[in-house]
Design a protein that fits this description.
By secondary structure, the protein is an alpha+beta fold. It contains nine helices and 18 strands.
Length: 332
């Protein structure tokens, strides 16, 4: 397996719900007019709390400082695992499950915080630039590591990590097992030919920027059972969309495509209060038991909470698994 350090330097930001109006123009520019911004990595995820925007430095220039914009202070680098054809894994699972034991767990053990962004096409593991030497030394036995530089893949060797391993000087602590919420929405993970993006522009703008008005036909108790979640990514020319089936019905069916199985997904939302960026092992806490059971999962971190998407047919066993995990920690 190969691990690629992609040629993007990313910022992780949050736009408040009531501040979105101040950023509508730059966000529309980043989504639909990418040739005017030079932005190659852009992801926008709406949750009930805020909008998480992950973007490269060219894209970040488009966002003006504002009281409605929070910016995590670090530069983040996206990593991507590429199968080189001779993988020994017999797992049929997709998403973060494939890399739970080879990437996510070892980084958690070395106190490296990760920010996950699963898309229709692949899984991006974001790590802080300052942690890169630790990441390389931790993963180089398992992977051939390459750094993308101006379109070329350059092999990377372990650097001096004297300031790296166990850099906080603490023993690995038993990670907090965070509470989870399992909303009732069914979700789709989809893609779109970038050339057809203008065809859905009106619908996409409506869903992203104007969908917060209450709908007359929605039962009053729906808010308790369902959760607002919509994610759009445009990364190196590839589009990924994650939306619930209610949002999907607003889009032309012939333009969005999903896997041949047309699978529906259920969400596990992690965190009882905003998680922050410094705690290690949150992704591992969810992905490791899923990997043990060979259950596929997409994983999307946001500014406040984390979100795993698992196949609908597995949601009961996943719920039981996480309940058992919480019981184990509370009794230990």
């Amino acid at each position: 397996m190969d691990l690629h350090i992609l040629d993007h330097r990313l910022r992780v930001t949050s736009i408040s719900k009531n501040g979105l109006v101040h950023f509508t123009h730059p966000l529309i520019k980043l989504i639909f007019l990418r040739n005017r911004t030079r932005c190659k990595f852009f992801s926008l995820t709406e949750t009930p709390e805020n909008y998480t925007v992950v973007l490269d430095e060219d894209g970040f220039k488009e966002l003006q400082p504002s009281e409605h914009l929070q910016v995590e202070g670090s530069i983040w680098l996206p990593l991507n695992v590429v199968s080189n054809g001779n993988t020994s894994s017999s797992s049929q699972a997709v998403g973060v499950t494939k890399i739970a034991k080879s990437v996510i767990a070892p980084l958690a053990e070395q106190h490296v915080s990760v920010f996950m962004l699963s898309t229709y096409q692949t899984d991006f593991i974001l790590v802080r630039e300052k942690d890169l030497s630790v990441v390389i030394s931790t993963l180089e036995e398992e992977f051939k590591i390459y750094r993308e530089v101006a379109g070329e893949s350059v092999p990377v060797q372990s650097q001096d990590v004297s300031n790296g391993l166990h850099k906080n000087g603490k023993e690995a602590l038993q990670p907090t097992v965070h509470p989870v919420l399992i909303p009732q929405n069914q979700f789709c993970v989809m893609s779109l030919d970038p050339d057809t993006l203008p065809s859905i522009a009106t619908t996409l703008i409506d869903v992203l920027f104007y969908s917060n008005s209450p709908k007359e036909d929605v039962p009053s108790n729906q808010d308790l059972d369902c959760i607002k979640f919509f994610s759009f990514s445009l990364i190196d020319g590839y589009i990924s969309l994650v939306m619930d089936t209610e949002a999907q019905r607003q889009f032309p069916a012939d333009l969005l495509f999903t896997s041949s199985s047309g699978e529906l997904w259920r969400m596990v939302r992690i965190g009882g209060h905003p998680l922050g960026f410094d705690e290690c092992g949150i992704v591992a806490q969810i992905s490791r038991p899923l990997a043990d059971s060979d259950i596929s999962a997409y994983y999307i971190s946001t500014f406040s909470f984390d979100h795993a998407l698992v196949p609908e047919e597995d949601i009961i066993s996943v719920t039981d698994m996480l309940h058992h995990q919480r019981q184990e920690q509370s009794s230990s």
